[in-house]
Amino acid sequence: MADTPYQWRFFRAGGFDQVQLDTAADLLALGELDQKLWVALSCPVKGIEFDSRSLQFIDSDNDGHVRAPELLAAIAWANSRLTSADPLVQKRQGVSVAQIRDEDEPGKLIKTAAQALTKELGKSETDELTVAETSSAQAGHAARALSAWEAAGADALPLGEATAAAHALVTELDGKVQDFFTRCQLAAFDERAGGALNASEDSLKALAPATLQAGTQAISDLPLAHISAGAALPLNVGVNPAWAARLATLRDTIVNPLLGAQTEISAADWQAIKDKLATYTTWLAAKPDPTAEGDGLSDLEKLARYVRDLHALANNFVAFRNFYTRQGMATFQIGTLYLDGRSCELCVAVNDAAKHGALANLSGVCLVYCDCVRGADKVSIAAAFTAGDSDQLMVGRNGVFYDRQGRDWDATITKIIDHPISLRQAFWSPYKKAARLVSSQLQKLAASKANAADDTLGKAAVSAAEKSAKGEVVKAPPPPFDVGKFAGIFAAIGLALGAIGTMAVSVASGLFSLAWWQFPLVIVGLMLVISLPSMIVAWFKLRARNLGPILDANGWAINARARINIPFGTSLTKVAQLPAGAQRTLSDPYAEKQSSWPYLLVLLALVAAVIWYLRTHA
Questions:
Q1: pLDDT by residue (tens digit) across 410-420?
Q2: Tell me, what's the pLDDT at 1?
Q3: Same-domain pairing of 136 and 196
Q4: pLDDT-derived band at 508, boundaries 50, 70, 90
Q5: In sequence order, what are the beta bridge partners of 234?
Q6: Residue 97 in domain
Q7: What is the DSSP letter of 563?
Q8: Are 56 and 301 in contact (CB under 8 A)?
Q9: The whole model's pTM is what?
Q10: 3-state DSSP of 53-84
């Protein structure tokens, strides 16, 4: 009989189905769930809000990414080390001795380490050993190993505190000294080798034209001293100048204390020096790794972390439960940006804004990139603006970024990827564009007129100055009155006024032919004719917003179309509002004074339209 498939439960969020992981059975059966239904298949270890040490344990191949097989392996390992998998979903902070399975050798080591730590902390076997306690115990093991190693080093220092420096110098010189003695042995083997193994005449001639210094590479490459059969290495005179200082230090700090005062050493002497330092070399190689595992302690820490963190990671990996249910921040949300009267909760870490923006642009989300500085520290973020408008968003504006630890950072906008933010913005967009166009044209016209007036005034001033310098007093005759010219101007003005009046009368007659309740419908219809096209375009773009490219640009492998629809997107950005019950005084002593002329002109136009209507329908 075939096994009954596991009965999964899903919830709908972000426009797609996401698996619901509530029980230990859900976690253990996760390997049976088709990975096409996982929201993500890989996430980076860095740049997300999750315990980095826990992620290091899960990232078994240490490639900087946690992938689906590694998450499944971590769940399976934790289940194999626990008497029951229930603690994995109980939001515990650690594990107790009683919950550890000890049926095999690794399990026994973990339990023994847990029992020892429990006794050390004065706890019972049913008390939890927290992540902090197990991590501290692991760190303590490394510290104790280091202390034991340092104590053993007392017998491995033939030169006392100078041994480390002596060992470093001998290590540095060993290759060059061995080269010298090998050349001398070859010269003893065959006398013809003596001349060949010394510096050639051509190489010395090549040095002659140059400005020489002892540290020049060409000099350093020459032998330490003159090569001859059975020669000893001199330490005072006759040595390569590039190595003279180090050979002098070798003589004073190592050769004389260990072998007695002498001005040269043989190959046997050099080997004797290395033999005397051999105990130090062996001791140094045995220095314990700071991350060294104690017997069962590292696995105990890993188990405690898995009990605390695996369920949360699965719900931010297989599903984006925290993000879409708004029951806390997701792992990729690193803080909140406050800027332009809004708070943006969808903020992700960014290493390279240009590289990130190339892919994140496909999300259809308005993204604002900021450099955030706190003292000497600096981070870069991308914040999604999903409510309000983008009128006042510009490069260089400043805000404040609060990370998940509550620390505040100075944030400055460095780049903006502009996309529709809201339907309200799309509704008013045509009017704002028209207002900006009119304002721009008026400013250009005013500027051109001002420049023309300045040019005319400047030319007149220069002309007057020149004439004054010559003693001339010349009055230009007034230009003759051109009747035809002014008649044409008046005629054009009359035609324009007539066209405007005709249009106004036509509009007024059309409006007055309507019932009173039809006036609002006409106004609403006119506004819709103007705003509806931009609203339709924005509506389609807002419905197509997708979280995937934003996270893919950060190294995630998003496996679903994680949509950010209009209602959900609005919840990610809060717009400033007065608190409920707040008192508000509307009088503003510095408010700009409103001119009555616009209202008067509108009133006169209405009166004229009414008079015209009454006369034509009398």
A1: 999 999 998 88
A2: 42
A3: no
A4: low
A5: 264
A6: yes
A7: B
A8: no
A9: 0.64
A10: HHHHHHCCCCCCEEEHHHHHHHHHHHHHHECC
